[in-house]
Structures are given as C-alpha cells and as structure tokens.
Task: inverse folding
C-alpha cells in the first residue's frame, strides 16, 4: 500500500523539482536520481565535473536538499563506488558460475589464468568503479564522518567475501583462505594500477617512446598480470609446506 | 679545480638570496637547496604544504627563479621522488648484500619471507618516497612536459632493474625474469597501499571498531604481505610447468 496514493508523481530527473520527497518511495526515488546524476557527471567529465552544484542541478534537487540524503559530495561518490563494486562482484559471480557450468576447471596453471582473466575483465569493463576505488583512500574517505566510514567498511566486508567466492569458483581448486587473501588484495591493486594505466595526455604521448614500452600497458592487461601473481602467491601460501609463514 | 675559486660562498638555505647562481657548482647547490626545502615542507605538512611560494621562500630563491631549475612544482616533487627511490634501492642493495654476506639464503619458504620483509622495511622507513609514489600517477605526472616524463621514466628503468637485483640477492634463488616481474609490481603496490594504510583522522577512528580489524594494517605489514604474494607468484611463474602462461 502506498502511503500517499493520490499524490502526483514527480519526475526528478527530467526537470528541476524542488518539492520535498515525503514518502519512503519518493525518498528512494530522489536518492537514486542523485546517484544517477553524479554517475553521469563522473562518466562524462571525471571527478572534477561531479561537484555538489552540478549534481543538484542535474538531479533536480536544491543543493541543500542533497544533505537530506548524503553527508557530502564524497559520500555520494562513496555510495556510487559501493554500488559499482556490487556490480563487479555480481558480474564476477555470474561469469564464474557460467564457467563452472561449462565443465570442470582446467588444471594448473590454466585455472589461475582463467580466474585472473575473469576478475580483470569484470573491473576493466567498469571504468567508473575503478576510478572511484582509486579515489577512495586519497580523497573520498577524507570527507566522511566516522559512522559513515564504519558503514562503508561494513558494506565492503561481504562484498570482498563474495568476490573471494567468485574467484574460488572461477579457479576451481582454491582453498577459501587463499581466495579471501586474493580478494583482499583487489582494492589496493585496482587503486594502484588504475591511475598508472589511465595517464593524462602528456604521459600518454611520452609512453609512445619505444624505450618506454614496458610502462605502456592497458589496465586490463596489468591488472590480469598482477592478479595472476597474487593468485599464484595465494595458492602457494595455502600449501602445507608454506604454513610456517 | 673550481671555476670561480675567489667567489664568496652564498648560503642559499640560511637566508633569502636572490642573486643568480652563475657557475655549475652554484647552480647545483641552488638546485639541491630547492629540493631540500621542498622535502622539508613535504615531511612537515604533506603535499599541500609544498607550494611553489613556500618552497621558494624556504630555499631563499625568488619564485620565478625556481623555473631556472625545474619545470613546475610537480617537477620538483618528481625529482624528490626519484632521489627517494634511489635511496630505497641503495638501502635494499646494502641490506641484501649484508644478508648474503652472512651466509647462504634459507630454503623455501624462508627466502621469500626474507626478501619481502627487506623490501617492505626499506619502503616503510621512507614515508616521503611512499607518499610521492602514491601521488605520481594521479597528480604529479599531470603537470610535467612530455620530455620531462620521458626523462623521468628513463631514470626509473635502471632503478627498477637495480631493485630487481636487490630482491634476487635477498631471496637467493630467484631467476632474473622473476625478480624483474616482482620489482615492476612495486610502484603500483606502494601507490595502492600507502593511502589505505595512512588514512585521515576519521578513518583512523572508524578502524578502531573491532568489526573492521582486517582493514587496520600498518603499511609495512600490508606491503610485506602483498609483496610476499607477488614474490611467490613470480617464483611460480618462473617454473617450467608455468611457461605456457
């Protein structure tokens, strides 16, 4: 049952609309419109384009109204990041399940390559979330309250656990502790590799110098290679003879 | 033989001195004073404290005079980063040589742990260079010319090669290709882990929540663990049965 069935539906996305959302459905709608606007601005113009004013204007909300839904601009971007990570994890789970349904995992070392390729493709297909993961620790987390950060990290934990499950399924023979180790390595790997693989125009031009060929790797290639090493390391660490580590 | 033995020595660090440095020695001295001033400001107040004006004032150089030595503020920080990386590599070489002199490397898995601990300690003892590596791709490289970036990357190549040599020496049984693979992984690992391990006050407070214990690792611990996995991966990738990768 809707609380206010007679209220006319407002279209927050199509035109400025400064009326306050009063029902839970309208609030959820408004919140989604703000996130959608921020995501659009981010995709089109990078983090500097996603200002509070631009987000408010695009979502059809007064700027002060944003604070009814989010703590700050950084909170909006953090919520987009969480939604994006959930998207990556859900895609990885689906891809891993499809691989598993197709038959037994290949033997060593093919299973490691398969899991690394799957994870790298899931991130590389979602540039927005990679960018936001790279921005998380250096900038976004600097303007969030302590309860906001606790909530963010508590939402990260099950997502990392699900990522570990997808990695183990794609691999086919990875112990759960090794899968968790590998999944935990993903946020810093993505954060470290994304800015290096997406340089500004001057760096991109410089890297055309044949002496610098080793620095010029697409993000998917470098993430796949790095995560391949991490997976091999996680496998090796799970071997009985490595237990003294 | 000094070119101008009779010229009185000026002390660029101790007081403002707006005289132009004319001999190669005086130019080198002035350049060093600018780098020293920038490093001091960075250590005391972070990147936001190392503005061009503050660097010029501290080095006793007029602001426009900085451009005789460096392209931009970012160029100054990049040169500091290169000097810092050279410091890390030199320390790693010395530590690895000392370990090697003490006797044979331990067997597996101790040799991997030894190399990972050595590398992590060399970086963790030099917070300035870790911070600058983290700033390199997202901010510093965005305000450097194409020739400046080519020069930077060409200076990075032999440093990464020397890091690989130190890692191989500390490890005791790592093939050169595997050592190179591991050394190449260090810049993105440091860039990804440093901001996460050095959060602002709100994140630091949030991570005291016992449910979030897994996120609260010192930089040295997380770099050692991540690099340990990378080394195991590099070792495994160098095995004959992994060659199809």
Result:
């Amino acid at each position: 049952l809707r609380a206010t069935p007679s209220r006319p539906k407002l279209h927050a996305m199509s035109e400025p609309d400064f009326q306050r959302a009063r029902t839970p459905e309208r609030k959820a709608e408004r919140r989604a419109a703000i996130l959608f606007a921020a995501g659009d601005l981010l995709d089109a113009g990078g983090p500097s384009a996603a200002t509070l004013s631009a987000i408010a204007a695009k979502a059809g909300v007064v700027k002060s109204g944003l604070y009814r839904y989010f703590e700050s601009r950084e909170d909006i971007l953090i919520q987009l990041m969480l939604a994006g990570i959930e998207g990556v994890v859900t895609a990885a789970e689906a891809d891993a399940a499809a691989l598993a349904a197709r038959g037994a995992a290949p033997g060593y070392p093919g299973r490691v390559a398969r899991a690394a390729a799957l994870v790298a493709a899931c991130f590389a297909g979602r540039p927005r979330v990679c960018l936001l993961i790279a921005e998380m620790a250096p900038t976004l987390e600097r303007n969030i309250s302590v309860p906001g950060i606790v909530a963010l990290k508590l939402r990260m934990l099950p997502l990392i656990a699900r990522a570990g499950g997808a990695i183990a399924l794609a691999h086919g023979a990875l112990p759960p502790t090794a899968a968790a180790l590998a999944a935990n390595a993903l946020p810093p790997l993505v954060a470290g590799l994304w800015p290096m693989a997406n340089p500004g125009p001057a760096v991109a031009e410089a890297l055309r110098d044949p002496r610098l060929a080793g620095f010029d790797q697409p993000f998917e290639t470098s993430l796949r290679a790095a995560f391949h090493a991490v997976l091999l390391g996680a496998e090796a660490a799970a071997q009985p003879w490595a237990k003294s580590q």
Observations:
- DSSP finds nine helices and no strands in chain A.
- Residues 1-17 of chain A have pLDDT under 50 and may be disordered.
- The radius of gyration of chain A is 21 Å.
- Chain A touches chain B through 62 residues (CB under 8 Å).
